[in-house]
Amino acid sequence: MTENAFVFACEHLRPGARKQVKVNNRDVAIFHLLKTNKYHAIDANCYHHGGKLLTGDIEDLGDKTCVVCPLHHYKICLQTGEGLYLDLNSNVKSKGVKQRVHDVAVRTDGVYVRIQIDDRKIESDHYANMEELLNSQNPNQRERVDLKQMKQQRDANKL
Ligand code: FES
């Protein structure tokens, strides 16, 4: 199942800029890449432990462009949502799709995003709405501790 409608996400970004928005109750990070002059929309919170991708560096890995999570430096492909890494021979390897990516349409009045939801369970779904997650009464104690630590870390680093 896919959400069919493109939803207005934000005004046009200046070249190379990025912005986090809420689309259909989901945290989405939008990046404009100078190199390709294209927009990319991806779940805003890292699949690993919810790091805020908006502040991550952009890095090329082979022919893929990645955002590097500021918390533990995982590399996530902006085009496909794959978790990527270099093996011992410096070959680019994929861990599979870990982060949900969304469709982007650029119209005269701004940037529109269509949320891509399907039957697959993608790891970033867990952190799709960080505010809701942090406020939830999760019965899993370890999860609560991790989230509390993460919130403190994020507040301290302003990530
Ligand atoms: S939270 Fe992103 S790499 Fe750990």
- The whole-number mean of residue pLDDT values reads 90
Strand order of the largest sheet: 1-11-10-4-3-2
Please identify, by name, the CATH architecture: 3-layer Sandwich
In terms of DSSP E residues, the strand content is 35-45%
Please state the overall shape, judged from the principal axes of the Cα atoms.
globular
Tally of DSSP helical segments: 2
Q: How is the biggest beta sheet arranged?
A: 6 strands, antiparallel
In this entry the ligands are: FE2/S2 (inorganic) cluster
Q: Evaluate the radius of gyration.
A: 16 Å
Number of domains: 1
Segments where pLDDT lies below 50 for 5+ residues?
Answer: none
- CATH topology value: Rieske Iron-sulfur Protein
CATH class: Mainly Beta
Structural class: mainly beta
Question: Summed up, what is this model?
Answer:
Helix content is 14%, strand content 38%. It is mainly beta.
Task: List the keywords.
mainly beta, 2 helices, 159 residues, 14% helix, 5-stranded antiparallel sheet
Question: Can you characterise this structure?
Answer:
The N and C termini lie far apart (32 Å). The chain is globular. By secondary structure, it is mostly beta strands. The mean pLDDT is 90. It has a six-stranded antiparallel sheet, with no helix packed on it. The chain has a single domain, classed as 3-layer Sandwich (Rieske Iron-sulfur Protein). It has two helices and eleven strands; from the N terminus they run βββββββββββαα. The structure holds FE2/S2 (inorganic) cluster. The site of FE2/S2 (inorganic) cluster has 9 residues, from loops.
